[in-house]
């Protein structure tokens, strides 16, 4: 996603001035003067001739181009699976890029062998991406190995031959072998899993040398400069889909090299989240897990792991799509946005930020720097609903966020409700929320609230559904929020009729 605008701005008015990008590509140190805005996928295939990384949709949906990106994290290297069709080359400075070629051994790896044994490859085009994602799961997953966990790791990989049954059998065999009673259980339990996999000859030996190798590469240097910048790129998950052909020849600023705009912290009863925080970093934060207990389930509906490792909260907001999933979740939380032009700073309530379709209350030189919302209390209930043609990796027909705090006797004290896909902007249901405050949660209250909510919506008919259908979803989602969060007070059967 893109945070910011296409002109010179400020967070310290800095510009990445590296003429050369230096990183480790598998077991080789690379130093290249290729354009920083060039996609990693294109660099791998055209410059390095590593064609195991496939070009498929080039929109981040199919996972055929999946790679691993490693960066220093304490004493080790933290790897993340991403789709290389959405990642700019300049951001690889000081990183370790792992392609399918980089995990090859003299023989087949355990993942490759499992795919062969269970017939998990047909035309073979998607196979490298699947193997990269499955290998990451064995390298990095926390907790016990499970089939569900492996399936979520490969949720961003599509098999167009529909060979999922075989791939699932291969996944299950790996989970069994690394599980508590499996022959490789000690590898899974090792404190340093990567080293254990190397010792077992399941990963190439060079992986254990990578922490020291990366320490020898300089971090990107930021210098004072006011030159015009054509594109500001954060996660890249939208701008490379929309304008990917223009970026390699343009002046590009990699916002992800600004660490102060990243991370989740708690301060004075609020969460303060850097705008460059990725969806996955947000999901994994312990405080967010406490505030939103079902965040893992919600994130599975929003994007694949590969996209969550790249997409940023600020980018999703500034993109201003009426059906932005994360935007609508945050909108319901009573969120404020901190904007800065590098000299002055101001706050805007998120519900007032969207003025019209793709029109924002943001001045020309401003960036979103922080996203702020209350920590919540023991009484806070949060829910997210989404309907799309596919369960995962699909654009919503309608999505909705919900936050409510009620007293012990069921009286609503605070509430926030958003609806995406039913207006020109992400819609905060102001009238519905005003009606609900002070009322007792019961079927009569919810029934009346649905009428107000349907009146606030102004959907249009499009390829994802008719206006009438979307308005009906507003009603159904509001019912779903209350039955999910307050099942002891609201029965779906009484409201669905």
UniProtKB/TrEMBL annotation:
Residues 190-378 form the FAD-binding PCMH-type domain. Transmembrane segments: none annotated. The keyword DNA-binding does not apply. Residues 14-103 form the 2Fe-2S ferredoxin-type domain. PROSITE patterns: 2FE2S_FER_1, 2FE2S_FER_2, FAD_PCMH. SUPFAM superfamilies: 2Fe-2S ferredoxin-like (SSF54292), CO dehydrogenase flavoprotein C-terminal domain-like (SSF55447), CO dehydrogenase ISP C-domain like (SSF47741), FAD-binding/transporter-associated domain-like (SSF56176). Keywords: FAD, Flavoprotein, Iron, Metal-binding, Oxidoreductase. One of its GO terms (molecular function) is FAD binding. The keyword Metal-binding applies. PANTHER family: XANTHINE DEHYDROGENASE (PTHR45444:SF3). This is 2Fe-2S iron-sulfur cluster binding domain-containing protein. It comes from Persicimonas caeni.
